[in-house]
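S.,

Sequence below, as promised.
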Amino acid sequence: MAIVKEMTTLDEVDRGLIHALNIDGRAPFTRIGTVLGVSTQTVARRYRKLRAAGLRVVGLPDPDRAGQSQWVVRLTVTTATAQKLAHALARRPDTSWVKLISGGTEILFVVDVPHGAAAKSILLHDLPRTSGITGSSAHLVLHTYRGGPTAWHGHRGVLDAAQRDALDWSPPAGRSESRAVSGFSAQDRALLTALSRDGRAGLAELAAATGWSQATVTRRLAELRATGSLFFDVEFDDTLLGATTRALLWMSVAPAELDGVARALAEHEELAFVAATTGATNLVAQAMCADPVALHRYLTTRLAALPAIRTLESAPVLVTVKAAGRAVNRLV
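The prediction came back faster than expected:
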């Protein structure tokens, strides 16, 4: 497990760099430096500092393109086993977003399961044999409204429109943006595995991982990005961006109003994740607020202004043990 060095403040260059990486995780430092008005060396130095503080750019596949369904699993556990179990779950290659919630008596995580397959490996086989679990529920993600390629608003808001346009990645001229229908090849999966460890890995490293030439790697990266099959995410300690109070929200919405409510929530700057799921609570979200007062204000004003939300349950997030990438993190 990597040791994250303490970092207490971010200046405008740091924030601009994080915003830039959210726009294009593989943007060259020269281009980022030009947009931010600083030297390439300054960008490289700031990136190394942020990396030491836990920042990671990760390349991730679109779950549908990868033939995967996603389940949100919620476990009630004993306090004596919570941390050990959370770290064990984080080490699995099929999990992401492993979080300790509700005072350390619950664990929430996302597990990827091949389309059409029962989630028996972890949901029906492994978990029931694990001591310390006192309750569980699993919810199939039906549609993600915010999250994945659509970053939290808190990662943005630093760069102006012209700066964003200068960094925006777009497919090479003449390349179709229609979604491919075939699955990933073995080399594609090797490429994605390497990018899940480091989304900014160099072409030489990616060529070695896939057995392709650097030119082929460049071409395939462009194809995967153009079809939406690959996107880049930025993992960071969001408390440094002002989100010191985080909470998971489970809501129940009438089916006829679910899509409209979810789309409205996806525009709320307080929410980093919004998804429709199966279950009695058919909408799940994660709130990112400055403090408990701000969370209370959000729940009682913006969220309360949506009468179609019939029930609401909230649970504070204590620790994110693992984020989207494969590596285990210590994101407090």
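The chain has eleven helices and ten strands.

Coffee later?
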